[in-house]
C-alpha cells in the first residue's frame, strides 16, 4: 500500500469515527467524542484549556434537599447556564452563610465560593456547576426572574409533610423575619415577637400560608406578606418547624417569651436529620 492509499484509508476511518468535519453532524459527533475523552482525562483537558463539567453527588429527595430548595426559592438565583447564587446579609446572616455552604457540600459534594459584594451588605454564596444547575431544574426549580415567572414550590415537596416543613424552614430562614411589637399597658411597656414572611410570588406565599395552617398555626396573608401576630403562635412555629438561622434563634433567646425553654428550642432548631 503506497502513501496516498494509506492517507485515503486513514481519512475514511476518521470520517467513520468522527463524521465529516465539513458538516454540522460531523462536528457534533467529533465534539461529543472529544468531550467524553477529556472527561476521562480531566488533567489533560485542564492543561489544554478545556472546561469540563464538575462531578457532583446527586442526592435523593430528602428533608435536607427540601430545605435547600426553600433556601433557593427565598434568596437563590439560577443565572446563566452553569451557576447558582444565594444572596444573604453579610452581617445579620454571618453564621447562616457558613451553614448554607456546609449544606451544599453535604448534599452535592461540591465547594462554593463566598464573595462579599462591593457595595451594600450583600454577600453571595456561589456555586459554578452545570450539573448542579441541571439537577435543581429537574427537582422543580426554574431559571429566570422569580417574580415575573411567579415561581412555585415543587409538587414533590408539597405532597409530603416532612418535606413541606423543611422547605418552609428554608424559605423563612431567608425571606422571613421576627420583629418586636411594643405596647403600653397601665403605664408599663411590654413587647413580644411577631413573625413576617415576605415574598413577591403569590404561589410561594400561598404555600407558606397553607403549610402553617396545616400544623394549626394561625397566620394571615396580606399583599406580599404572611404574618403571625400572636406570641404563642410564633413560639409554636419554632417548636414545630425550627430554624437553621441563628439570627432568628437569638431573637427568640432575647425575647421575654423564651420562658426558660431556650435550650430545647435551640436543639430542635438544628438541621433536621432523615
Q: pLDDT average, as an integer? A: 82
Give the helix proportion (percent range): 40-55%
Rg (C-alpha, Å): 25 Å
The span between the termini is: 68 Å
The CATH superfamily of the largest domain bears the name Homing endonucleases
Classified by CATH, the class of the largest domain is Alpha Beta
**pLDDT below 50 for ≥5 consecutive residues: which ranges?**
256-274
The helix-strand sequence is HHHHEEHEEHHHEEHEEHHH
CATH architecture of the largest domain: Roll
Number of helices: 12
Regarding quaternary structure, what we see is single chain
In total, the number of domains comes to 3
As a percent range, the share of strand residues is 15-25%
Describe the structure.
- With 274 residues, this protein is of the alpha+beta class.
- The protein has three domains: 3-48, no CATH class; 63-163, Roll (Endonuclease I-creI); 172-268, Homing endonucleases (Endonuclease I-creI, Roll).
- 49% of the residues lie in helices and 18% in strands.
- The chain is built from twelve helices and eight strands.
- A four-stranded antiparallel sheet has the order 1-2-4-3.
- Strand 3 (113-116) and strand 4 (122-128) form a beta hairpin.
- The radius of gyration is 25 Å and the shape is elongated.
Amino acid at each position: 500500500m503506497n502513501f496516498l492509499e494509506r492517507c485515503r484509508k486513514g481519512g475514511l476511518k476518521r470520517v467513520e469515527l468522527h463524521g465529516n468535519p465539513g458538516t454540522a453532524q460531523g462536528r457534533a459527533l467529533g465534539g461529543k467524542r472529544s468531550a467524553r475523552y477529556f472527561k476521562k482525562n480531566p488533567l489533560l483537558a485542564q492543561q489544554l484549556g478545556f472546561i469540563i463539567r464538575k462531578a457532583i453527588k446527586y442526592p435523593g429527595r430528602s428533608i435536607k434537599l427540601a430545605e435547600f430548595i426553600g433556601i433557593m426559592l427565598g434568596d437563590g438565583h439560577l443565572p446563566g447556564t452553569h451557576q447558582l447564587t444565594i444572596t444573604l446579609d453579610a452581617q445579620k446572616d454571618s453564621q447562616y452563610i457558613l451553614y448554607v455552604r456546609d449544606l451544599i457540600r453535604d448534599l452535592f459534594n461540591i465547594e462554593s465560593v463566598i464573595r462579599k459584594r462591593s457595595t451594600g451588605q450583600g454577600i453571595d454564596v456561589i456555586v459554578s456547576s452545570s450539573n448542579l444547575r441541571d439537577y435543581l431544574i429537574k427537582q422543580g426549580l426554574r431559571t429566570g426572574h422569580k417574580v415575573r415567572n411567579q415561581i412555585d414550590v415543587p409538587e414533590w415537596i408539597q405532597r409530603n409533610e416532612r418535606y413541606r416543613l423543611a422547605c418552609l424552614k428554608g424559605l423563612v430562614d431567608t425571606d422571613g423575619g421576627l420583629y418586636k411589637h411594643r405596647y403600653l399597658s397601665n403605664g408599663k411597656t411590654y413587647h413580644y415577637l411577631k413573625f413576617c414572611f415576605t415574598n413577591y410570588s403569590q404561589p410561594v406565599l400561598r404555600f407558606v400560608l397553607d403549610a402553617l395552617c396545616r400544623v394549626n398555626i394561625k397566620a394571615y396573608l396580606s399583599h406580599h406578606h404572611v404574618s403571625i401576630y400572636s406570641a404563642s403562635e410564633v413560639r409554636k412555629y419554632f417548636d414545630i418547624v425550627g430554624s437553621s438561622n441563628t439570627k432568628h434563634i437569638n431573637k427568640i433567646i432575647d425575647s421575654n417569651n423564651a420562658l426558660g425553654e431556650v435550650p430545647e428550642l435551640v436543639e430542635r432548631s438544628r438541621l433536621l436529620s432523615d
